[in-house]
Write a structure and sequence with these properties.
605 residues; Rossmann fold; alpha+beta; Arc Repressor Mutant, subunit A; five-stranded antiparallel beta sheet; 4 domains; five-stranded parallel beta sheet
Length: 605
């Protein structure tokens, strides 16, 4: 444990102790305090704290202020005269109290501080052992003089940054590291933005003087652009020759291997892409490791063509991160709740399955869902339990998930990048559910089916949260492509974003199109038609569809199915008003009485 000013930080149980009294903290404030305590006596910038605790996620800095207020209240600290957390205006925070290692059962000794910090980094990434082994092997090849270019791809929140962070943590002092971040919207205005950021960080590092000297000698235009020389002449992009920088980087890597990391390359400019391509194609031996992360890149984006070209020529490697399996999500949930050492049995039954189902293996989504459940008090600590387990405040049916706020913001930003017509197409698709056929979108929008199919195919190539699912054969023998929302949360956001009248109209049109396609065989799609009519508020039509399905089920002696359909019809008939309601209910009871095993009792007949 770490001890400071009468407090002990219990990393195993996610709490703070004072004079033998356990003080519980929510997971996120605890993680903020832990990071500060593990890095005492130095400035922790806002960006460093946000990057460390919320990798691959945009979080407003205001969140940090809220957590600092909570921590100061817990510690009895005063911002004006801080004993623990000092605020450095517009820069960040510094933990000013003296920190020591507290010996006790299960505690680490003073010599294990670095191991504890490294373990903390590892706990933020789970389920990527195979990817880490592959990265380690490629790193060793680069250290031996065989340059390596690696593209790490995957959807938003899948853990690309966490993987790269773990790689960089493992490089140690024997490597130089230069990281640059591509920024949405900068590609058209600032060429080489991530490259210049990476070079600036490399030169500003503790041993960066040699790198600066090599740049001044071999790539002077690049050096002037970093503001590292006394030359005041302006530098244009035409002055920055990629070949000069490639040669300089190879020279810098001669003394010790160099890792270049470029994040979110799908937002990168073409000049940066050309530079990476040039580094991959150069034949001279070099102790260079180039790692680039990327998310959704459309077919027309130059990144796609560049990657494919390098892969074809065997000049790069690619790691595509997929969803985490259920056991990894379980570990992630326990980690987030501070229960990693205690085991699965300390979690409420069904919690891991619930999180895995709604997050669909995305680690960012899983963490956000756990935070949402604790914030809404669906999931609470059982402080009376000596094992400090968690318990549910209700059943899972009571907590059917609304989209967590920070995921909603992220999804809204992604949707906002689409054109108005693309948003309409996906909105119409959301009316069908997770999977949506092109014919249904065309019916909802009253547009040409072939044109909608082409638009959906283009979207599936360009955005990461929609993918092609296959083909449906329609009753007339034609085929229609169908598409799938990779995550239900995207579908939920699109569906909830529709105006109620538009949503109802689209449901009505899809139901009508189903009736046309299956004319004479409406029983085959009775439930689908009823569902759309119910969503449109057309209760009477929904009851008609279910009755049709029940009659056919009875004819083929599927009495159980007939009973279920009629029970659903009764439920909807109760929503009708006045005499119409009474007449439909009586008719449904007569239907139930026709055939053995169908009679049931309704409390509202």
């Amino acid at each position: 444990m770490k001890q400071f000013g009468g407090f002990r930080l219990d990393t195993g149980n996610g709490c703070v102790w004072r004079e033998g009294v356990r003080i519980a903290l929510p997971p996120r404030p605890f993680m903020v305090l832990r990071y500060l305590v593990e890095h005492p006596g130095r400035l922790i910038t806002h960006d460093e704290l946000l990057d460390a605790l919320w990798p691959e996620t945009y979080v407003q800095p205001q969140v940090l202020r809220t957590y600092m207020l909570e921590l100061r209240k817990l510690l009895g600290d005063d911002a004006a005269e801080p004993r623990f957390i000092q605020t450095l205006t517009k820069r960040g925070y510094c933990f000013v109290a003296r920190v020591s290692d507290s010996e006790g059962e299960g505690d680490r000794g003073p010599g294990d501080t670095r191991q504890e910090a490294t373990a903390a980094e590892g706990r933020r990434m789970v389920g990527r052992d195979e990817e880490m082994r592959r990265l380690h092997a490629l790193k060793e090849r680069a250290a031996g003089g065989h340059r390596q270019v690696i593209f790490v791809g995957g959807e938003a929140g899948i853990g690309k940054t966490a993987l790269v962070d773990a790689l960089c943590e493992g490089l140690g002092d024997g490597w130089g590291v230069a990281r640059g971040q591509c920024v949405d919207g900068f590609a058209e205005t600032e060429e080489y933005y991530p490259v210049i950021e990476a070079m600036s960080r490399l030169c500003a590092a503790g041993d960066g003087e040699r790198a600066c000297g090599v740049l001044e000698r071999m790539a002077p235009a690049w050096s002037r652009g970093l503001g590292r020389t006394n030359v005041t002449a302006s530098v244009t992009n035409s002055d920055r020759r990629p070949g000069d920088l490639c040669a300089a980087l190879e020279q810098i890597a001669e003394q010790k291997p160099l890792a270049l990391v470029f994040e979110d390359l799908h937002w990168g400019d073409e000049a940066t892409l050309h530079l990476i391509g040039a580094l991959a194609r150069r034949r001279a031996p070099a102790k260079l490791l180039v790692v680039a992360t990327w998310g959704a890149a459309g077919a027309e984006h130059p990144l796609r063509a560049m990657r494919q070209n390098l892969l074809m020529r065997q000049l790069c490697e690619e790691l595509m991160l997929g969803p985490l399996p259920r056991d990894a999500v379980s570990r992630l949930v326990r980690q987030e709740l501070g229960q990693e050492k205690l085991g699965q049995e300390t979690l409420p039954a069904g919690l891991t399955a619930f999180v895995h189902q709604h997050a669909e293996g995305n680690p960012l989504f899983a963490i956000a869902i756990v935070e949402h459940l604790t914030a809404r008090r669906f999931l609470v600590r059982d402080d009376a339990d000596d094992a400090r387990t968690w318990k549910l405040a209700g059943g899972f049916e009571e907590m059917e998930l609304e989209v967590p706020e920070r995921l909603a913001q992220m999804i809204e930003l992604e949707i906002a990048r689409l054109s108005a017509e693309e948003q309409r197409i996906l909105g119409a698709g959301s009316v069908m559910g997770i999977a949506f056929p092109a014919w249904a979108v065309a019916a909802a929008l009253e547009q040409d089916a072939a044109g909608i199919e082409e638009a959906c195919a283009a979207l599936a190539r360009r955005v990461h949260f929609v993918e092609r699912g296959g083909q449906d054969e329609l009753p007339d023998g034609t085929r229609s492509e169908f598409y799938v929302f990779v995550h239900g949360l995207y579908r939920e956001m699109l569906y909830r974003g529709l105006a109620a009248t538009r949503r109802a109209e689209w449901h009505r049109r899809i139901a009508a199109r189903l009736g046309e396609m299956f004319r004479g065989r409406e029983w085959a799609v009775a439930r689908e038609m009823a569902g759309h009519r119910e969503a449109a508020g057309a209760w009477d039509g929904a009851v008609d569809a279910l009755e049709t399905g029940a009659r056919h089920a009875r004819e083929v002696r599927e009495h159980g199915e007939a009973r279920l359909l009629l029970e659903d019809a009764l439920r909807l008939a109760e929503k009708l008003s006045g005499e119409e309601r009474a007449e439909r209910v009586r008719g449904l009871h007569r239907e139930m009485g026709r055939g053995s095993g169908l009679r049931i009792v309704s409390g509202k007949a």
